Hints:
Layout: H1 3-18, H2 21-35, H3 42-54, H4 59-86, H5 90-98, H6 103-133, H7 145-165, E1 171-176, E2 187-193, E3 198-201
Antiparallel strand pairs: 1-2, 2-3
Helix pairs in contact: 1-4, 2-4, 3-4, 4-6, 5-6
Amino acid sequence: RFKPIKAISKVIVWIVRGVPLMLQIFIIFYLPGLLFKDQVPLFSQIDRYFFINYGVADAGRITAVLIAFTINYACYFSEIYRRGIESIPKGQYEAGQVLGMTKSQIFFQVVPLQVIKRILAPISNEVITLVKDTALARIIGIDEVCLIFRQDVGFTILINQILHAVNGHRGIFCVQSGSSAVVDNIVLNVIIAEESGVISIR
């Protein structure tokens, strides 16, 4: 009905769907700081506000990721809904008109159930992809699920290596953690008490 708005929305959807999500996260997070160099970056202000008032860290980064994911997947979901609605045969609309239903009644009472049946599989695929794409949040320093899991596994492997190295000995051992540890360049002090068998990590 509104052709200019329709054309603009099509262009936006086409661009967003064509640009990789990783690049969109970079653009949304860094672009405000590049455009307004004389001011404190927007997401840094959000970080500071939430950390000072609520003690929440990385709020700005999380906000940037949420905006990027919302815009990206809104475009994908809009295409799924549009194609689902357009796939309904014209006969369904004509049947509703024969029964004396208005256009709004047809759209809200006849079309939705058929649309849901058609778009359920694509929507499920997009939800699964969305969950997997959350791993991209790590590129701007957010500790998402995959990164935390990788760090925990690396930390466990590191501790096992330490225990093997000091097996049966008493003393204090300082180990420089590698890239697989929880945080790089942290020195772990491992104290082995041979008599009690107690291991303390500080």
